[in-house]
Amino acid sequence: IFLRYKPDLIWSDGDWEAPDSYWNSTSFLAWLYNDSPVKDTVVVNDRWGRGCSCRHGGFYNCADKYRPGTLLEHKWEMCSSLDRLSWGYRSNMSLAEVMDEMSMIEELVQTVSLGGNYLLNVGPTKEGVIVPIFQERLLALGRWLDTNGEAIYESQPWRVQMENTTDTVWYTSKGPVVFAIFLLWPRDGVLRLSSPVPSPGTQVTLLGFAGTLEWQESPGKGMLITLPYMLPSPLPPQSGWAVKLEGVK
């Protein structure tokens, strides 16, 4: 498998049934990192024996649907499933048991803001088919990333991960550029950010919209951003938008 496929990632699971000595994990990982054809590129998770999770590995899974709530020193991954009750396909799955679009985007944004990788699982049928409801959800996430991917791909955690006053605004960064991703559209059309420190040359844009946005310094600290006017729509509102902040600290 390593000679033919040269995998970039080895994702081990089910390790908690026995210690690493039973699985011979130590010898395998030593070979993988020192002598295998992918020794210079491969990365592994943390499930290699009882007691290994969240302690050893190229990146940590720690637990299914793990949310650390704070920035970790070690690279980590949040593994989630569109079916809230199963990692495999269930013929008796109901619509209420499938994550909605907002939940997917919320998990993705929170995970990336805290420096994690987001793994989103779907269970195919025995014929290998991805059922339509899963297709719809994944395509919706893809459309969201088409617009907002600049705030996600190749991003890094900022000095602040989320607004202290709310858990609906999360931050990412790329060098000097800061992205504030807000999960709910403010009713008055004004986005209030207390964490960024603006300067006279600060520019604000909304991903997916042309032109710059007007802003002003907040009377306390931070900034008030005037968002574009959104026409009323009978459709459910999209979940999650990202403002790009240039010239802030």
UniProtKB/TrEMBL annotation:
This protein's record includes keyword Glycoprotein: yes
Gene3D superfamilies: Glycosidases, Golgi alpha-mannosidase II
GO BP term, pick one: glycoside catabolic process
Top-rank lineage group of the source organism: Eukaryota
Keywords on record: Glycoprotein, Glycosidase, Hydrolase, Lipid metabolism, Lysosome, Signal
Keyword Hydrolase: yes
Glycoside hydrolase family 29 N-terminal domain residues: 3-150
Residue ranges of every copy of the Alpha-L-fucosidase C-terminal domain listed in the record: 161-246
GO cellular component terms, semicolon-separated: lysosome
Reactions catalysed: a neolactoside IV(2)-alpha-Fuc-nLc4Cer(d18:0) + H2O = a neolactoside nLc4Cer(d18:0) + L-fucose; a neolactoside IV(2)-alpha-Fuc-nLc4Cer(d18:1(4E)) + H2O = a neolactoside nLc4Cer(d18:1(4E)) + L-fucose
Subcellular localization(s) per the UniProt record: Lysosome
PANTHER family attached to this UniProt entry: ALPHA-L-FUCOSIDASE, TISSUE ALPHA-L-FUCOSIDASE
Family membership noted in the UniProt record: Belongs to the glycosyl hydrolase 29 family.
Record text on subunit structure and interactions: Homotetramer.
Protein name: Tissue alpha-L-fucosidase
Organism: Pomatostomus ruficeps (Chestnut-crowned babbler)
Gene: Fuca1
